[in-house]
Design brief:
By secondary structure, this protein is α/β, with parallel strands linked by helices. 39% of the residues lie in helices and 18% in strands. It has helices spanning 20-30, 47-54, 70-79, 95-98, 115-127, 140-147, 157-165, 204-213, 221-228, 233-242, 256-269, and strands spanning 16-17, 37-41, 59-64, 83-87, 105-109, 133-139, 166-174, 179-180, 187-194. It binds S-adenosylmethionine.
Length: 272
């Protein structure tokens, strides 16, 4: 392919990976075999796409929103039969209808501004169908929130959900020079292995409990939940203390197991 000029649009996260060492580290951890069906969100100019394809997975589904990258990705479509490229917004595309077989791994340098909704979407639509491994380049702070343990101020609903399903961990930090154009933030390689298939991401009560528990971070969990579940207002303090926490506890203080216990208690009391 001749030299193709493309002006990176950083507003949609176009910071392309240029660091071959990081690429090798991604491949080492992703450990792609011919049995794997892989999803990549944000193919960009295809550096990671090509590297994944060279590992000969059963299939690679890549999504890319920016059609002007066609000169870079079209060539891969011509070369690799197992490459399925979808143009469009990853947050809007309906995954399951287009992916058969369902990917079991997502390996991607994702657009950082959609990290949280994208991971929720993958959990909601693909985790119960077999996706159980994530290897994602994300902004360092996003990775820290996802891995944040109880009593850490970064703790938030997605991290608690992922921790209830498996083990998220930061493999390494990645400096801005590894990308072109260089982002203004530090990145992190985040690995998540899901060990259990649960319905939690698609459980409306679980989502509501977490959302309302964290609604106002400076308020106590009891106050936050009381606002969203007025019918249980009088009982919530007792529920929380019965689970071993003071009525003054904030949402970030609860361990994953306690959130699961709380779900059980609420499920018995709330009309679905
Ligand atoms: N994988 C390439 C690499 O490692 O160099 C590109 C990574 S770049 C950080 C993120 C890519 O996601 C960009 O190519 C951008 O156009 C694409 N993108 C941004 N928003 C998107 C969306 N909503 N759906 C699909 N792709 C998106």
């Amino acid at each position: 392919m001749g030299e193709v000029f493309h002006r990176a649009n950083t507003r949609i996260g176009q910071n392309f990976l240029i660091d071959k060492n990081i690429l090798q580290i991604i491949l080492k951890h992703a450990d792609i075999s011919p049995d794997d069906s892989v999803l990549e969100v944000g193919a960009g100019k295809g550096i990671l796409t090509r590297a994944i394809l060279e590992k000969k997975p059963l299939v690679l589904y890549s999504l890319e929103i920016d059609r002007s990258l066609e000169p870079f990705l079209g060539e891969l479509s011509d070369t690799f039969d197992n490459f399925k490229l979808f143009w469009g917004d990853a947050l809007r595309e309906g995954f399951p209808s287009s992916f058969d077989p369902c990917p079991n791994k997502i390996v991607a340098n994702i657009p950082y501004h959609i990290t949280t909704p994208l991971i929720w979407k993958v959990l909601e639509e693909l985790a119960e169908k077999g996706l159980n491994y994530f290897l994602l380049m994300v902004q360092k702070e996003a990775a820290e929130r996802i891995c944040a343990p109880a009593r850490c101020k970064e703790r938030y609903p997605l991290g608690i959900t992922l921790q209830s399903m498996g083990k998220p961990r930061i493999l390494r930090l990645v400096t801005p020079e590894s990308f072109r154009p260089a982002p203004s933030v530090t990145s992190a390689l985040l690995e998540i292995r899901l060990s259990t298939k649960t319905h939690l991401p698609n459980c409306p009560l679980w989502r509501r409990l977490l959302r309302s528990g964290f609604a106002q971070r400076r308020k106590t969990l009891v106050n936050n939940l009381g606002r969203d579940f007025p019918e249980l207002k009088k009982e919530i303090a007792t529920m929380v203390t019965t689970l071993g926490y003071p009525a003054t506890a904030r949402a970030e203080e609860l361990e994953v197991e306690t959130w699961l216990d709380l779900l059980e208690v609420f499920a018995k009391r709330v009309d679905k």
